[in-house]
Amino acid sequence: MSAPFEERSGVVPCGTPWGRWYQTLEEVFIEVRVPPGTRAKDVRCSLQSRHIALSVRGQEVLQGKLFDSTITDEGTWTLEDRKLIRIVLMKTNRDAGNCWTSLLENEYAADPWVQDQMQRKLTLERFQRENPGFDFSGAEISGNYSKGGPDFSSLAK
Q1: Which of 20, 90, 106, 120 keeps 20 to 30 A from 64, CA to CA?
Q2: What residue intervals traverse the membrane (predicted)?
């Protein structure tokens, strides 16, 4: 079995003071570096449809209104190797045109080059889903790919 498209094509991370975040068509991933030896009981994480709050050992790390809505019941967080918190949020809008430009409404925005690369990746991911027999993981895309790229669904097959 081959790896999912997003794993083969790599991620386009947006660096932050506490770690990084990145996205696929369906999910937003947040990776937060924490002091080595952190235990789960040291972590307080609240995931709501449009809001996130994370504190470690009583210190606020991340809090605010998310860029777009998520499915609350499907959000998860894990502590890995007692030094990294990984949060996975499921996007409500899973269209290729829904490329988050920042993690929170007014914070942790991707710079223009990273935003461009994120949009390209989501467009390629959309093409892969529409054409499951082809491998787009090594493809380059140019031209009109903003808002998810061109719509070929109306073309006769």
Answers
A1: 120
A2: none
pLDDT of residue 135 exceeding 60: yes
For residue 128, give the amino acid letter: Q
Token reading at 89: 């949020």
User: DSSP label at 110?
Assistant: P
- Determine if residue 68 is left, alpha or beta; phi over 0 gives left, psi from -120 to 50 gives alpha, anything else beta: beta
pLDDT above 80: residue 86: yes
User: Which residues does residue 32 pair with via DSSP β-bridges, in sequence order?
Assistant: 19, 85
34, exposed or middle or buried, with CB in 10 Å at 0-12, 13-18, 19+? buried
Q: In whole angstroms, what is the distance from residue 5 CA to residue 34 CA?
A: 29
**Lookup: tokens for 82:** 């007692």
Torsion of CA 139, 68, 28, 115, to 10 degrees: 40
For residue 139, give the 3-state DSSP assignment: coil
Model pTM score: 0.83
**Least confidently predicted of 23-32, 33-42, 66-75, 94-103:** 94-103
